[in-house]
């Protein structure tokens, strides 16, 4: 009886101890300390400039003249922006580009799965498919320009031999330039998504697959019922990060088309760059980035809200 | 206890941020000189602090000359040494802001340095657009007072001084670039043609047709719409640009439409010029096209006399003046070039002005790299010096070159408004669609005129 | 399900061949880079592309890059120094923050995470000018330290590692807490090692991104002796444009460390330690 009571008190104390060290102020301190380096750095180097940018978006600041010459203009920048047809076109273009993210992820996951279990020379393939990601943007642009050559490039030669008389002009064709840019974007980012998926795949225990195989499950079943759900945290990461990045893609477009032809490949960031560094309208450019930010934030928040439905941690 | 720690942390954070905000505000309201701080690694022993505190005149004056052309190409140090020998009280530091001679990278860095309040005395610009924008931004100092004191008229000294802006001149022209036609002499001979001495655009078309063979096109026009899609406009003696003196649009001038038409005819009708579809989609390199013999003629600027890039031609280069719009007129061509200005924040404007004058007259002639805007120089001697420095001087047909330079008259210089780049880009976008066959000429012109008008309106 | 032909799995073989064919497409730009680096400049931009150079200029090109006017070796070393330090720092800071966001229940965790993620959503071009002025004020302009700090606080890293930390089973952590371990111990001995594949992958990415970064050194550095290799590559230009053959010779030389890091890193990804408590 005494012992039972004692043990009960022990376990109670144990539980209380557990509760203490699992919550309360010690937990908070630990949390803040762990987050501190990254957060402080980001606050000073990124958050503060963003706040400065917000303030500047209400002025007509021009970087060359300095802070003293910034005049408050209220919402004028935003008004002009939201009625600017070129900006609206760039937004439209970017929304179209968003569609390429899920396509990229599907392709990357499939290839990750194939490389992980269904090929010889795994290591070699990983390197090969990763190459575009580390190759010089200049090289990528030149190679694709040749591939997409309107009359003498291999793609159109193939199309013409199949009987299509006037195949698209691809990068030089205002109707197809955006699609061409998207194709190149998908192609370059496959490597990146691939290796992150490969990392995610490592977390899935082989036993699951083996027991499924023993039960007679097909490769497709294994893919859809095991792989896809268990890799969903990674998919979520890549989806969110991918969509955010699509709004920031800059170098590739600059070197491929510079927004042309006829502004058919202009994106909000390219527009921003032109306004900020070529027209020197820095206040206006800050307004542009605020609008871009708001849109990305909205899309991301939606994704976070919906994640419970399909992401398994 | 912890809560307090957490709050202390947050308060410290806010404090740091506020400090940073105030400090950076304060920093940029200071002028140059002092705000350099210790963060600049200056070559040489520039005592910028003491030089800028405006002490006695015996102090050596340090000037910073900001530009984009690296030492290997321009040999600034040697040139500066000559000036310093004759002017012991002045030391000039050549500051190339980029090492790849890229003017777009250059202006980006220039703007950032201006925003940070760095010391600048002399600033060079490669084109009038960049220059005008920065006058507007208050970066440059007017030089009329210096010109008057020296007693010179800028337009008698130089042949392409940019016009006045709000009644003031802001810079002196350095090199002058005029337009001309480069021709592959082998192809000329093969087609049995003479080097043109004066000709019209109709003649150009005939020549292009005659020189187009299975191996090469007769002509090449680049993706620069402001140049190759405005060929006839560039030869208009009254106004070779898209804007009038008062800043209004010149888009409705008939020569604009005719220029677009001319290009379309050359590429799509005569098929004697490389089609725009190919030029754009392959981002063709005009030097590659000409020097490898894929195009017989190329309208270009006089910088091509020496700037061949990596190429050495295996043929002789013949030169012809810019074709005329009217058979009975003289030869006119748009003249551009670069310009050197004095920074508004400079503490030694007079010394900067003196150096500028020397650099744009004797300095550039001694350098032997570019055609000077200075009228006082000896053109033939300078040309010979320039050509002698090319990889293959015998490839330059001197007679036609000298003739071309002599016979060309500068068109009137119209200072473009600050929004000229924006407007020209819009024009280019419409030209894209026309040359690619997406829309007809009427629609193209209508859209372009409207768009440019809108830009002019919004900048009033 | 398996059709074995001796020791060869036929399905595996077929897929291998198909992937190899597709792989050729993926190797094209790199092949072009190598090819261009061997050519005489005038032949680089011919059409159609001369995959095998008609005129070999390899020795001259590589000599011009490594032994020419540019202090290429110094730039290489600068890049190595900056990139390695940035990668280690960034991985550490991001992992710490990610662990906290995933496994420590502290007040304001979600809000803080959204704020951090939000900073990722602003186009970096906007921040350039303010960051430039900040750096001037802090005295970080034209220093390697400044360059390192720019990329040492990665939101993507934090986000990515958070996802992977969230996949770590809570029971292990709770078991360690009951044994009296503090978060520091759990982080260093349990959680961090458990997501080794993710850390290795992130380290690879961060290394590549920092190594290939042109914009940051261009804007935030001034001295020739501090420049990194990307600036060096772009400097093979003269007043009329890029000299592609030299640029590509430099680029090919610069890709080698990336390949090495990738191969080494991938080994870690595969050999990530799997403790029993991860899944299932």
List the helices and strands and how they pair.
The complex is a heterotrimer of chains A (313), B (460) and C (280).
Chain A: H1 2-21, H2 24-56, H3 76-82, H4 85-98, H5 100-117, H6 122-134, H7 137-147, H8 154-161, H9 177-201, H10 206-214, H11 219-230, H12 232-246, H13 251-256, H14 268-278, H15 282-310
Helix pairs in contact in A: 5-9, 6-9, 9-12, 12-15, 14-15
Chain B: H1 2-29, H2 48-52, E1 61-67, H3 71-74, H4 76-86, E2 90-96, H5 103-115, E3 122-125, H6 128-136, E4 140-141, H7 144-150, H8 154-157, E5 171-184, H9 185-190, H10 201-211, E6 217-219, H11 225-228, H12 254-269, H13 276-281, H14 286-291, E7 295-301, E8 317-321, E9 332-333, E10 335-343, H15 349-367, H16 379-388, H17 398-407, E11 409-410, H18 420-435, H19 441-458
Parallel strand pairs in B: 1-2, 1-3, 6-7, 9-11
Antiparallel strand pairs in B: 3-10, 4-10, 5-7, 5-8, 5-10
Chain C: E1 4-5, E2 8-9, H1 10-37, H2 41-44, H3 58-66, H4 72-103, H5 109-119, H6 124-138, H7 144-151, H8 155-166, H9 170-178, H10 183-194, H11 196-211, H12 215-220, H13 229-234, E3 237-238, E4 241-242, H14 244-270
Antiparallel strand pairs in C: 1-2, 3-4
Helix pairs in contact in C: 1-14, 3-14, 4-7, 4-8, 4-11, 8-11, 9-10, 11-14
What does this structure look like?
The complex is a heterotrimer of chains A (313), B (460) and C (280). Helices cover 74% and strands 0% of the residues of chain A. With 313 residues, chain A is mainly α. In chain A, helix 6 (122-134) crosses helix 9 (177-201) and helix 12 (232-246) packs antiparallel against helix 15. Chain B is an alpha/beta fold and 460 residues long. Chain B contains 19 helices and 11 strands. The longest helix of chain B has 28 residues, at 2-29. The radius of gyration of chain B is 25 Å and the shape is globular. With 280 residues, chain C is an all-alpha fold. Chain C has 2 domains: 4-57, no CATH class; 69-270, Orthogonal Bundle (MetI-like fold), CATH 1.10.3720.10. Chain C has 14 helices and 4 strands. Chain C has helices at residues 10-37, 41-44, 58-66, 72-103, 109-119, 124-138, 144-151, 155-166, 170-178, 183-194, 196-211, 215-220, 229-234, 244-270, and strands at residues 4-5, 8-9, 237-238, 241-242. In chain C, strand 3 and strand 4 form a beta hairpin.
């Amino acid at each position: 009886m005494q012992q039972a009571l004692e043990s009960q008190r022990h376990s109670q104390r144990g539980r209380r101890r557990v509760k203490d060290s699992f919550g309360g102020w010690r937990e908070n301190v630990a949390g803040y300390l762990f987050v501190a380096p990254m957060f402080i750095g980001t606050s000073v180097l990124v958050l503060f400039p963003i706040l400065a940018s917000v303030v500047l978006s209400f002025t007509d600041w021009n970087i060359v003249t300095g802070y003293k010459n910034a005049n408050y203009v209220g919402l004028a920048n935003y008004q002009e922006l939201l009625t600017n047809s070129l900006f609206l076109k760039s937004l439209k273009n970017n929304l179209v580009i968003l569609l390429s993210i899920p396509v990229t992820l599907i392709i990357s996951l499939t290839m990750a799965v194939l490389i992980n279990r269904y090929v010889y020379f795994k290591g070699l393939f990983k390197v090969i498919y990763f190459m575009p990601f580390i190759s010089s943007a200049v090289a990528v642009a030149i190679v694709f320009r040749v591939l997409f050559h309107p009359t003498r490039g291999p793609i159109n030669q193939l199309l013409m031999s199949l009987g299509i008389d006037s195949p698209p002009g691809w990068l030089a064709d205002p109707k197809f330039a955006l699609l061409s840019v998207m194709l190149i974007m998908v192609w370059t980012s496959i490597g990146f998504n691939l290796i992150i998926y490969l990392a995610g795949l490592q977390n899935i225990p082989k036993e699951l697959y083996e027991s499924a195989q023993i039960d007679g499950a097909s490769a497709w079943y294994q893919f859809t019922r095991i792989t896809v759900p268990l890799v969903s945290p990674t998919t979520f990461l890549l989806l969110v990060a991918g969509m955010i990045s699509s709004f920031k893609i800059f170098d590739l477009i600059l070197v491929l088309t510079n927004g042309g032809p006829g502004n058919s490949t202009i994106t909000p960031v390219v527009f921003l760059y032109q306004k900020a560094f070529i027209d020197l309208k820095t206040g206006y450019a800050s307004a542009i980035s605020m609008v871009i930010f708001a849109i990305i934030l909205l899309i991301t928040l939606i994704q976070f809200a919906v994640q419970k439905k399909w992401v398994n941690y | 206890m912890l809560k307090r720690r957490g709050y202390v942390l947050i308060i410290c954070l806010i404090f740091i941020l506020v400090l940073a905000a105030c400090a950076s505000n304060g920093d940029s309201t200071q002028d140059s000189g002092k705000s350099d701080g210790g963060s600049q690694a200056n070559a040489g022993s520039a005592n910028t602090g003491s030089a800028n505190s405006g002490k006695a005149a015996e102090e050596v004056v340090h000037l910073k000359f900001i530009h984009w052309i690296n030492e290997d190409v321009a040999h600034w140090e040697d040139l500066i040494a000559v000036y310093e020998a004759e002017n012991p009280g002045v030391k000039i530091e050549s500051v190339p802001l980029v090492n790849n001679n890229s003017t777009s990278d250059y202006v980006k860095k220039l703007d950032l340095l201006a925003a940070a309040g760095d010391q600048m005395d002399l600033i060079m610009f490669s084109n009038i657009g960049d220059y005008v924008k920065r006058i507007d931004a208050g970066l440059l100092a007017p030089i009329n007072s210096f010109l008057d004191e020296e007693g010179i008229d800028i337009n008698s000294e130089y042949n392409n001084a940019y016009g006045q802006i709000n009644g003031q001149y802001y810079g002196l022209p350095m090199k002058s670039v005029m337009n001309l036609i480069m021709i592959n002499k082998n192809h000329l001979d093969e087609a049995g043609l003479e080097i043109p001495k004066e000709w019209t655009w109709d003649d150009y078309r005939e020549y292009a047709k005659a020189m187009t063979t299975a191996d090469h096109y007769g002509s090449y026009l680049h993706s620069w719409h402001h140049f190759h899609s405005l060929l006839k406009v560039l030869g208009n003696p009254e106004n070779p640009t898209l804007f009038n003196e008062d800043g209004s649009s010149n888009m409705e001038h008939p020569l604009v439409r005719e220029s677009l038409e001319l290009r379309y005819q050359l590429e799509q009708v005569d098929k004697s010029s490389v089609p725009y579809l190919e030029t754009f989609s392959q981002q063709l390199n005009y030097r590659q096209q000409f020097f490898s013999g894929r195009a017989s003629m190329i309208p270009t600027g006089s910088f091509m006399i020496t700037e061949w890039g990596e190429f050495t031609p295996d043929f002789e280069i013949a030169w012809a003046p810019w074709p005329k719009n009217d058979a009975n007129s003289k030869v006119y061509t748009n003249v551009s070039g670069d310009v050197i200005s004095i920074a508004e924040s400079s503490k030694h404007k007079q010394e900067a002005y003196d150096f500028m004058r020397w650099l744009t007259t004797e300095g550039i002639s001694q350098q032997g790299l570019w055609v000077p805007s200075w009228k006082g120089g000896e053109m033939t001697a300078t040309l010979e010096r320039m050509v002698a420095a090319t990889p293959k001087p015998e490839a330059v047909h001197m007679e036609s070159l000298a003739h071309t330079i002599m016979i060309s008259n500068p068109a009137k210089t119209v200072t473009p408004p600050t929004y000229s780049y924006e407007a020209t880009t819009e024009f280019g976008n419409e030209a894209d669609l026309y040359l690619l066959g997406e829309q007809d000429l009427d629609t193209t012109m209508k859209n372009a005129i409207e768009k440019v008008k809108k830009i002019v309106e919004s900048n009033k | 399900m398996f059709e074995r032909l001796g020791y060869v799995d036929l399905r595996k073989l077929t897929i291998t061949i198909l992937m190899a064919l597709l792989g050729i497409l993926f190797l094209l730009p790199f092949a072009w880079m190598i090819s261009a680096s061997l050519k005489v400049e005038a032949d680089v931009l011919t059409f159609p592309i001369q995959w095998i150079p008609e005129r070999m200029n390899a020795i001259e090109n590589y000599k011009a890059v490594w032994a020419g006017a540019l202090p290429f070796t110094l730039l290489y070393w600068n890049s190595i120094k900056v990139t390695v330090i940035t990668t280690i720092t960034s991985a550490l800071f991001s992992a710490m923050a990610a662990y906290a966001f995933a496994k420590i229940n502290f007040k304001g965790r979600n809000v803080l995470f959204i704020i951090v993620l939000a900073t990722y959503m602003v186009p970096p071009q906007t921040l350039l000018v303010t960051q430039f002025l900040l750096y001037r004020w802090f005295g970080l302009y034209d220093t390697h330290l400044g360059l390192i700090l720019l990329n040492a606080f990665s939101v993507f890293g934090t986000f990515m590692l958070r996802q992977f930390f969230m996949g770590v089973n809570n029971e292990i952590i709770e078991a360690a807490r009951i044994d009296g371990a503090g978060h520091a111990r759990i982080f260093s001995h349990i959680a961090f090692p458990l997501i080794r594949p993710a850390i290795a992958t992130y380290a690879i990415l961060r290394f590549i991104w920092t190594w290939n970064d042109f914009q940051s050194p261009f804007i935030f550095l001034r001295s020739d002796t501090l420049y990194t290799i990307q600036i060096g590559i772009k400097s093979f230009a003269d007043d009329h444009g890029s000299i592609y053959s030299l640029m590509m010779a430099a680029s090919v030389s610069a890709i080698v460390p990336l390949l090495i890091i990738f191969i080494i890193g991938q080994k870690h990804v595969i050999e990530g330690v799997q403790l029993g408590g991860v899944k299932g």
